[in-house]
Amino acid sequence: MGLKASIQAAAKAAVLTDAGDLQSLVALGDLLRQLSTDASGEGIAEVARTSAEAADLSDAIVLRQVDDVEAAFRRVIEAVRACDTAIEQASAPAREPADPELLLAWVASCESSLPEIEHLAVTAESHGLTPETAADIRRRIHTLKGECGVLSLSEAQSLCHDLESLIDASADRFPTEAVLAVADWMKTLATSLRAHPSAAEPDATIARSTLAIASVGLTKGDNGQATRRDSQHPAVSETASTAPTILANSSDFFGTPNRRNDFGEATTPSSSSDPFAMFTSIPAELRVSMNLEGADENVGDFALEAREHLANAEAAVLALESGSTDAEQVNIVFRAFHTIKGVAGFLNLSRIVEVAHAAEFLLDKVRSNKLALSPEVLELVLTSSDMLGQLIGMLSGGESARERELKILVHRLEAACEGRFFGAQRTESTPAIAPISVATPTPVSNTPLTSATSNVESKPTAQTPSSIAPSTPAESATIAEAAATASPTKQHAMAKADQSVKVSTQRMDALVNLVGELVIAQLMVIQDPVVTKLGDQRVQRNLAHLGKIVRDLQETSMSLRMVTLKSTFQKMARLVRDVAAKAGKRIQLEVEGEDVELDRNVVEEIGDPLVHMIRNACDHGIETSADRLAVGKSEVGTLRLRAFHSGGSIVIEVEDDGRGLSRERILRKCLEKGLIDASRNTDEISDLEVFNYIFLPGFSTAEKITDISGRGVGMDVVRRNIEALRGSVEIRSTLGKGSVFSMRLPLTMAIIDGMVVRVGNQRYIVPTLNIERSFRPTSEQLTKVLGKGEVAKVRDALLPIYRLQRVFHLTEGERELEHGLLLVLENGKRRACVFVDEILGQQQVVIKTLGDTQPHIRGVSGGAILGDGRVALIVDVGGLLETATTPPAIAA
Amino acid sequence: MANHERNESTNASRATNGSNEHKFLTFCLGSEHFGVEILRVREIIGLIAITPLPQTPAYVKGVMNLRGRIIPVIDLRQRFGLLAADATKETCVVVLEAANDDGSQTVMGAIVDSVREVQDIPPAAIEPPPEFGCEIPLRYILGMGKLKDRVVVLLDIAEVIGMRERAQIAGAIKDTASLTQGERRAA
To answer: What range defines the domain where residue A522 resides?
Structure first.
């Protein structure tokens, strides 16, 4: 077996092996020995040594010669990974252009994982750093490092490595700045690689200096560790004590063709005798990352699957509670907990493992008839399931479970086992049983899963019976039984149900477009005069059926485009932190509703406006700590970012508890600039209207913004961007208490309900949402102001009339108001009548851009293809009313 | 190394397209003959219903439905300042595409009086445009193609329908799209 093949075999085995699965451990040990032989044959001494030691260790686990099985096993896995990296590096000495596909996959995963790292770092800084978060960040960076190594991105790898060392070394002060700096640099790298796969890595001076500064700060506070490291390895001592040198040295050091140095350094920083010693300082936190998929995705998939397992388990428990004695039900519950435990272990979600393990253990007792299935047991199982649900919810930002409750639960679970079986021991620590179990020929084999893991997309689920990795010998036997009794196809189906597929956005957009075409084509058929004249019932019924399928298809394809606001909101967390730090303020960000889903295009487009609003809120809205204390507010300002559904649209709000908008100041400015007629009684102008003035272009640039509490820089751009998405923006504010900027956005940009109206021989589509009512005016309702402006009296309100014909410069069409129809349109608080010839009907239309040369035409938001294949323009009510109502001074 | 590969691949694609390289579609506007590179022509369709766009220059006739995609249509006669003519049986829309600097593609319909034929015009038969005597701005012209019996004005489609054209259409409207983009970038 060649070196490559043996490391691959070892790596695969390492992933699939569970610490309790003794047989697999023996196999792993053999593979490691083989690897060691191969490595020494190739002259890679470091790998030979490490793998030999790992092999010994794995044997030691099998023979129960180690105290902490889990920790030892993690060391084995870490060693395998280290060997893998080392061999990879040894065999790829120079920066070879990596496989472009692999590279792009990495770039994509990077683009999703970097914001997550940032988010974690920022959260850690604002909410206090938990050891879990620190370890999580470290792990992610570690993964990145490994991936960069594979892709021969030496600079990136060395940066990640330095950062990793820095995090390890700074136990009390987490180097947020350094993490962010490296993340920024990696983003630049990802961007440039996306553009040119062979692009050189960008200059890393800034990131390096930040790292250096952070490590200098560290040296002051952490001399003990620095000294300890000094004696171990020169490169590490540079990291810790003479940080600036690392600027010059590290890149040479890590850029050397033979990466074994790097590897050796990585494994022996804290102790020379034991290559695994460094890992004992970070127990339970190491993960194996054998593929290039983003870690977050795994966690997300895990959460999704785990929820389903829990649901299955709960259903089974309820069945048992209602008197079912089916042993299979117990098995279902057991398997659910077991699978969750396994995957959580893989992802190093230690709390989940803890609970799942305890519950699984209890259930195992029940299964093996050592414990009666009493109501108390079922109650405990349900409680565990709830606790797991809560813990899993934490993964997606849910409410955090209480540590105390968790401990009590685990204690209760353990007590339930041991309370009834005084002689029962934790079998893991019973060496006597181990060899017997190893000798038992169990049907547990890795073959099916091995083939699955070779697929990058496959998730580390352990659902097929053969893949259930037993953690105790006793279990391994019972599982074998379970595997024999359970129907394999059924379980396979279960595994399939949760799977998701990555699809390129191009293909998805193409699909959505095609469905749009289908809708149009279908309408064309249904509305075809020949078809409508047929009057055949069967044809009509078939057409109706077709229509239903098309609508369903459309809905389904639309749902493909929906994404959560999570990543957008995470970026905002970073922004708030940066702006606050720059402005010397203390701001706490509260985020709500990041799971709300929106059309991908909308999510992409709201980033800029959101950044603007948040920057404004941090910069001008929230006061400095001193000012806040002076007015009796808490020292820390609060910024709330919220998203929620409201009447068919999504509302995103940015709320601050800052100083609020000053109505008087805005009014004064409006008067100065002639935006408001001086003769108007300002008391009668609503707050809404007053605040809306800050959205006018050029409103705020005239005077120093801070004088009117600062809203308005580029707010016209914000509004324009949001309106381009067919959304609206609104401000509520109380002076001294804070402001809320509220954006209302459509769920999807692709389809609207529209009223088809006719003017002359042109047809237009008016969004139904904007139409309040329509009526044929009588001459009593119509008045002219100064012989020019036409107004209509609509239920006591006088509304201006706009003739669509004039707005769109048409020569034909009805001229007599009494002969046509008036549509009362509203957008926000603006209302007006629009004059059209007639209403032709209502239909759903697919919004299309007017070709890519489309300039922004006031009053037109796009086009739609009607049933006869002709294009009708979609009226942009907001733009239309604005064009019509904006005073000329500003419109110019 | 990667660059090298890329060059090779473009060479290869050029070689396969070599046969179309010097082919031009010729069409008429009034009595003048024009030509566009055949590689820039997506298709030729008859004159179908065009929906007028408000607030655009007169030569932008509006938008039409090209198999589910909405594309703008310009009248080349009006574009080049020739006298407008009534549509005849021969009037048709040449759908042109041009790559923009940012990698996107602009697709636009151009109304012409009639389409003639596809001509092979080798580079040797193309001369630079004359300084005068042509009613069309020089930047739209690739060169003058010499055929046996006549001279054809070869149009630079990227110029006629490409980015600059877009800016011009936008510039004709008060609220320019380009300004919005610039501001967004600045923000």
So the answer is: 505-560
Task: Say if residue A117 is in the same domain as residue A204.
Answer: yes
User: Is A856 close to B176, i.e. CB distance below 8 A?
Assistant: yes
Co-location of A551 and A568 in the same domain: no
Min Cα separation A870/chain B (Å): 6
Is the pTM value of this prediction over 0.90? no
Same domain, A567 and A555: no
B65 with A513: Cβ contact below 8 A: no
A622 with A729, same domain? yes
Asked whether residue A255 falls in the same domain as residue A352, the answer is no
* DSSP element (H, E) containing A378: helix A375-395
Tell which of A689, A720, A746 closes a domain. Answer: A746
Q: Which residues of A fall within a CB distance of 8 Å from B165?
A: 853
Mean pLDDT of A802-807: 86
Provide the number of structural domains found in chain A: 5
**pLDDT tops 70 at residue A835:** yes
Are A661 and A737 members of one domain? yes
Chain B CB contacts of A850 below 8 Å? 53, 63, 70, 72
Nearest CA in chain A to B186: A714
Answer yes or no: is A214 within a domain.
Answer: yes
> B163 at the A interface (CB within 8 A)?
no
Question: CB of B53 within 8 Å of any CB in chain A?
Answer: yes
Interface contact flag, A859 B64, Cβ < 8 Å:
no
Query: The domain that contains A824 carries what CATH number?
Result: 2.40.50.180
Report if residue A621 sits inside a domain. Answer: yes
In chain A, what residues touch B69 (CB-CB under 8 Å)?
Answer: 848, 851
Taking a C-beta distance cutoff of 8 angstroms, is the pair A770, A877 a contact?
yes
Q: CA–CA separation, B96 vs B106, rounded Å?
A: 8
Q: Where among A725, A746, A767 does a domain terminate?
A: A746
Contact A517 B68 (CB under 8 A): yes
Number of A to B CB contacts under 8 A, please give it: 112
Residue A887 DSSP code? -
In chain B, whose CA is at the least distance from the CA of A810? Answer: B54
Evaluate whether ipTM surpasses 0.85.
Answer: no
Q: What is the pLDDT of residue B26?
A: 92
Distance of CA A177 to the CA centre of its chain: 22
Give A280-338 pLDDT, tens digit per residue: 333 333 333 333 234 455 677 777 778 777 887 877 777 777 777 777 778 888 888 88
Cα–Cα distances in Å, from A598 out to A366, A552, A564, A593?
Answer: 46, 19, 6, 12
**A335-349, pLDDT tens digit by residue?**
888 888 877 777 777
**What spatial distance separates the first Cα and last Cα of chain A, rounded to whole Å?**
78
Residue A703 structure tokens = 């005077």
| String of DSSP letters for B68-91 | TEEEEEEEHHHHTTPPP----TT-
Beta-carbon separation of B170 and A856 below 8 A: yes
Q: What is the DSSP letter of A25?
A: H
Chain A neighbors of B48, CB-CB under 8 A = 869
Q: Does A701 touch chain B (CB under 8 A)?
A: no
- State whether B68 and A762 contact (CB < 8 Å): no
DSSP H helices, A22-171, are 22-42, 45-62, 69-91, 100-127, 131-150, 154-169
Q: Is B124 on the interface with A (CB under 8 A)?
A: no
CATH number at residue A409: 1.20.120.160
Inter-chain CB proximity A717 and B161 less than 8 Å: no
Architecture of domain B21-186: Beta Barrel (2.40)
**Chain B residue closest to A807 (CA)?**
B54
Would residue A449 count as lying in a domain? no
Please indicate, yes or no, whether residues A802 and A853 belong to a single structural domain of this protein: yes
Does the residue A272 lie in any domain?
no
CB A313 within 8 A of CB A381: yes
> Does residue A350 share a domain with residue A255?
no
